[in-house]
Design brief:
293 residues, alpha+beta, three-stranded antiparallel β-sheet, two-stranded antiparallel sheet, 9 helices, 36% helix
Amino acid sequence: MPDNSVAKDARERAALSEICLSVLWVSALTDKRRRFSKPRLPKDPLLLKNRFSLYSATKIIFAKIALRNEAILDASGEFASINTNCRHTFSKDFDPLFVLAWVNSKLFQYTYECFFDALRMAGRFLPFTAPYLTIMCIKEADPKVQRRIAGLASKLMDKLTKGGSTDAIERDIDSEFYSLYALSVAETQQVNDCFEGLDLPLDAHARMKACEACMKDDCAAFGWAYWHVDHQYPGMWICQKHSQQLRESTFKATGVERFQWHLPAEEQFRSGQPKSSAPCRVRKPRSNACRAR
């Protein structure tokens, strides 16, 4: 015979299932002329009190799996969902709209990918689950800066509701965070370059990366630069030897160019990145093979 606590827990779960099923079709919502069932959770003693506190709180809801972070603000605590995470119970030092702007910014996505790019799944999707989101940080900003960014976020949401392009507002929000984190012009360009062509189909192929200082050392030692394996790891954007930002090749990993062998050279790196000062002429290897270490 099961003990009383286990039996009671089983009865409560069964009762909860019946309660939830009884309200699944109370009302419906319409999207693109299609009607869908709209479930509602009843305020029943069997449902945990802290669960209702979470759902009714002001919160930012995150999609668990996406190409890039997708987050919305539930200011009035009206949404509960599955396959999402949420951030709730905000400190008085942070405006929820300011936090929302940060987690949807290019700089947040760039930082997140530096940590977790190795976790990408088929189709280039990234997981945005609680353990990973928990370690992400946000820089403190004075109330004036927060109000300015929160105002832009509010303006963006209003624009989305009424329709129209939000590109200019998004650029303003990104610029605010570049300034807040004191990014240089080159660092800002590096972040923006990573988002070029995101509206195009994505695949699992990554561009080759190289370090400017390593290229210079390779040329001095061997007469040409070569691809370093440790620079190609997913999420690797800083050379561990020289602490310099890695540069990304413009050559594609797919298409006809995948059959060609290329060594790191000046003309193949993204514009806007710092140019290498390597004092050597990059030469092709004698054999049709890629030199990598």
